[in-house]
Amino acid sequence: MSRYPAPALTRRALLASAAASAAGAMLPLLPASPATAAMRDVSLRAAAGRVRLATPGETAAWLYNGTAPGPEIRLRQGERLRVTVDNALAEETTVHWHGLRLPNAMDGVPHLTQKPIGAGERFVYEFDAIDAGTFWYHPHQKSSEQVGRGLYGPLIIEEPEPLRVDRDVTWMLGDWRLTKSGEISEDFGNRHDIHHNGRVGNTVTINGRRVPDGFAVRKGERIRLRLINAANARIFSLDFAGHEPIVIALDGQPVTPHAPEKGLVVLGAAMRVDLILDMTGTAGSRAAVTDRFYEGLEYKLVDLVYDGTPLRERAPDWPLGLPANPLPEPDLKAASRNEVLFSGGMMGEMVAEEMGETMGGEMMGPGAPGGRMSHAHSMTGGMMAMMNSGAAWFINGVAADESGHDMKPMLTLERNRSHVIAMTNATAWHHPIHLHGHSFRVISRNGQPTRHREWQDTVLLSPREKLEIAFVADNPGDWMFHCHVLEHQAGGMMAVFRVA
């Protein structure tokens, strides 16, 4: 249960929210025609540069348009976006549009959906903004290093009639590993990070900067706060110190407005959460926003700093609900069922043995028909042999090679049919699992139905957890399915789902 009760919704607010959701459900399923949609043109240039993060001096980084994060791209639902990307780096890159349902050729995965953008080359991405919501962009080429050096930016698609708030604010949470001299540590892809919980940095920024002076607010103000976790691996669990955040969207998709569990807003790597945050503090006061995910390593992210003059004496009575995006509803009775097992990493053999015993010795792997092995030790023995050869993480017993994303599909999903993916995390670590090209409903955790049946594109799996997602595979092509702890992806935890 939440330590903070959800604020009471007035009858007027509830009726307005319901009307908004009903209107969203009637949106057309097809994207706007390129011939009629308004076009938004954007240019991005990826290049080395310097930024001021947390030290008196500047830090060498890789930047979009000279900034980290890159420029916020903002457009309206139904518009068409055309982004011209110039690569001024000394190596190949791509741009992946995280969370967007777009044509496969625009997804930005090297060798799988496009040829990488070579040094000095240009590529044009063009697609329709089908869903409103909070998304982001980043490379999928050597992503653990390119993202870790600063290549990422926010992408906001506004509803045709945006939710009424006083301010719409984006916080892109970044995580940097800096040396004592303030430079980015060059230890990318080291074995320890890959086999443990990834590259967790020692400096956290909001929109590319530490904010020692705090975030200015006014009593009575209502803010739509869009949180984006752009860190390689860090998980955030934010405590808003006496305030009552209300979750209104996850990964860009509307959800029934609710208070987060225990009052903490949790974001795994690559996840997004939209909050309604009413400023209920006293004029002239400060309130700390604290990250509490890592026990014993809690720290203050930023202070909410109240102006001495209130905007109003109490929170406004405005609707909280967002209109639904045009997502096809999965039919669970007619859905195919597919089992996916994540294994590997430090202590992976021990966890796999434990879970094999609790499951009667049967776990998924590349052995018997259907991928099921009769004994867990068969899987762990093969897993250890592969780990000794350099692989670290496995999906159904297979470790992918990140240098060649063009992989044989692990699953072929019938187009326009509903599918359930039952995932088991047989590891000692958290994994934010991301599926490209689709959003999915999270329907159960450890056998219990989820309360909100939330739509997501990146879902956080806890160690030893079992989770089910469901979706209609309506977007044809070969799509990446991987852990968004980028070092885990680099160490083998990725696969391809084919929709045909």
Structure description:
The chain is mainly β. Residues 1-34 and 364-381 have low confidence and may be disordered. It has helices at residues 11-25, 143-148, 191-195, 348-358, 376-388, 486-490, and strands at 39-51, 59-64, 73-76, 80-87, 96-98, 122-128, 133-138, 153-158, 167-176, 203-206, 215-217, 222-229, 236-239, 246-250, 253-258, 264-267, 272-278, 286-291, 299-306, 336-344, 363-364, 372-373, 393-395, 411-413, 418-425, 431-435, 440-445, 448-449, 455-456, 458-461, 466-472, 477-483, 494-499. The protein has three domains: 39-158, Cupredoxins -  blue copper proteins (Immunoglobulin-like, Sandwich), CATH 2.60.40.420; 164-306, Sandwich (Immunoglobulin-like), CATH 2.60.40.420; 336-499, Immunoglobulin-like, CATH 2.60.40.420. Helix 4 packs antiparallel against helix 5 (376-388).
Task: List the keywords.
500 residues, mainly beta, Immunoglobulin-like, 3 domains, seven-stranded mixed beta sheet, six-stranded mixed beta sheet, 37% strand, globular
